[in-house]
Design goal:
- This protein starts with 7 loop residues before the first helix and ends with a helix.
- It is mainly α.
- Helix content is about 70%, strand content about 0%.
- The protein has helices spanning about 10-15, 20-45, 45-55, 60-70, 85-95, 100-115.
């Protein structure tokens, strides 16, 4: 029986597990940013704190994940003015679906968000 084949050189050439310094720096930067956001989410106490955090960082992909895992009981109040005809249409939709505005908006937001992210 012969000696086993030495595949070290071939395995080294095919190794995709090592990161370049630039890739490593990019990953470190990403995790530092996520850690900073996590600290901000954990320190947020009031709706104004959350609103400020979201307004300044809503484009960061990890923010939504952090907010979902935070399970905060607070909500953010938003107000808008509707024309009388739009209000009548909205009232009709809510009554015909037997749903509250909050549930209707949450469903619509999730649907639109998924369409944009797809």
């Amino acid at each position: 029986m012969g000696l086993p084949t030495n595949n070290a050189k071939t395995n080294l050439e095919l190794d995709q597990g090592l990161l370049s310094q630039q890739e490593l720096d990019s990953k470190i930067s990403k995790y530092k940013t996520k850690d900073e956001l996590a600290q901000k989410v954990l320190s947020a106490k009031t709706p104004q704190d959350y609103k400020g955090l979201i307004d300044s960082s809503y484009t960061d992909e990890s923010l939504l994940e952090l907010l979902d895992s935070d399970k905060s009981r607070t909500t953010i109040l938003m107000s808008t003015r509707l024309s009388p005809s739009d209000y009548a249409k909205l009232k009709f939709i809510l009554d015909s679906k037997d749903i509250e505005l909050k549930g209707f908006m949450a469903n619509l937001i999730n649907k639109e968000y998924e369409n944009i992210k797809a």
